[in-house]
Amino acid sequence: MEHPINILERYWKFTAFKPNQEAIINAVLEGEDTFALLPTGGGKSLCFQIPALVKEGICIVISPLIALMKDQVQQLNNKGIKAMALTSGISYSELDTLLDNCIYGNYKFLYLSPERLQQELVQDRIRLMNVNLIAVDEAHCISQWGSDFRPAYKNITLLRQLQPSTNVIALTASAKPEVIEDITKELDFIQPKIFKQSFYRPNLGYMVYHENDKYYRIESILKKYSASSIIYVRNRKLTLELSSFLKSKNITATHYHGGLSNDEKDANMNAWLNNQKQVMVATNAFGMGIDKPDVKTVIHLNLPESIESYFQEAGRVGRNGDKAFAVILKNNSDAVLVKNQFLKVLPTVNFVKQVYRKLCSYFQISYGEGEYITNDFDFNTFCKTYSFSSILCYNTLLLLDRNSVITLSKQFKNKVTVQFIISSSALFNYLETHQELNLIVKSMLRMYGGIFDHITKIDLKRIAEKASVTESELINALHELENNQIISLDLAKTDAQITFIQPREDDKTINRIATIIEQQNKLKQQQVKSMLDYIKNDTVCKSMQLLAYFGEKDVKPCGICSVCASTKKESKPQDINTIKKRIIELLENGDLSSRLISTTLNCSEKDVKTVLKLLLEHNIIAITQTNTYKLKHL
Fold first, then answer.
1. Which fold has domain 204-340+537-564?
2. Suppose 253 and one of 114, 243, 317, 461 were both cysteines; which one would form an S-S bond, judging by CB atoms 3.0 to 4.6 Å apart?
3. Among 573, 588, 575, which Cα is nearest to 620's?
4. Segment 174-227, tens digit of pLDDT
5. At 491, is the secondary structure helix, strand, or coil?
6. How far is 371 from 313, CA to CA, in rounded Å?
């Protein structure tokens, strides 16, 4: 067998492994069932990709994240490694061919969702594959105590029956001790090799600051550390608002959220990755798979939903080993906001039943039917039709997707139906005076035989290719034909597709997952409480608090977090006379606010306000109408 380090150098151009990587890879190569807990940036994917490349055969990777699957497949293909992902929207015949390629085509990686694994065709073909390793990514999804529990993950053990002699590696970036125990049990590990890398990051200072003016503090931080930064915000609107504010302060910034087009996402991402923009202002849709080593600060304007989420997002800072900061800015309204954002939008079992019944009615699915029927779906129209709260309804659809009741795929598309409403002879007379439409019309006639007789669903992309025009040119042509009363046209826009996985049984369908819904809601409440406890606790080192949450014991204060830093300041009290002298010197040059004074002097606001109070009492300074301080000239 080729040595793993040679594979690492050839394909990834690294000359050494990160901590724990080599030991994990060796355990996998020795045929051991292996559990790997590596924090964000620890290089999890290499722990299964390298052993799979060392051994003959194909590695099956189970992942719940389609975007991450596509990203890893693209990266492997770019390196000349044959990999594929079986995502949604693949026809039966195409699936048949792809699976054949996995058996006979020298492929090294097959990425699957746990739901795809339930298909009989997929199972039959996996039996015939030379599988060298089974990798379960985001393995916390298998545990009912994991933050993203997916019942379909419990069926992964089926792979052990299809390939009984193949070992398994389970990987995750964040898991509490009870989740780790659950994962190894559910995957039927016998004497597993468990690797847990400490979450301690000696170069990373976790800072929590109480701020009434968060934008001012962000500006101060970014000007003090003028290096690459990520700022996480609550919603799409804030990404635009904050990036515009930073630009007005001469700080280069761009933004990222799930509603941008792929071209916009790529352009904004590349500007930040190439350091053309200092700051990326983003929702939590940003960051997956990003490995930018020189990020100096990650700032949370709003509270994350859980310690797990925070740790993952904060972990994107300081990967080059330089001193870096993960900052949370909080104020008195944050506790209410985080509860409104993450707890008030949790759907109850009764609400889930209601949405599911209306969804079946919306698509006219009869009781006992609907299995594997796919429908184009306009989410906003659905919510308006039944007066549902959009956020509650969306969370319900995600919950139904996670629990394999439906599959929700988000993809914007035009659903177009056409019927010619004049005779064929009249149509050809019309084309004599409208030659520019000739090729488009004839392309449609050849592709859709019954288009004169009944309303026909057409494929814009295929027609555009056949007629050698763009899709927008084709749509303009269709509108012209409609205006001239040649065709009837229905150009509906949809923003998603829904596939029903189970036949309609109304409440019975939801009753099967009711306990899971209630348990996940309870877990979310516990997670929000842990997050609020973390930001309130100003007596225990922030790093120690985070490590204790993940079950690490015997840890020492980090020395650089906001708690440790304030403790150091308190142990070295500032000399009151020195501060007094320096404030007077500053005010000789003009009026200043207390905040600007403390920033300029690098003193705590508490010390500065104490001295300002003394100076006011001694009639040395006065407060102006704009709430700044000025020297009194006696």
1. Rossmann fold (3.40.50)
2. 243
3. 588
4. 888 899 999 999 999 989 999 998 889 999 999 999 998 999 999 999 999 999
5. strand
6. 38
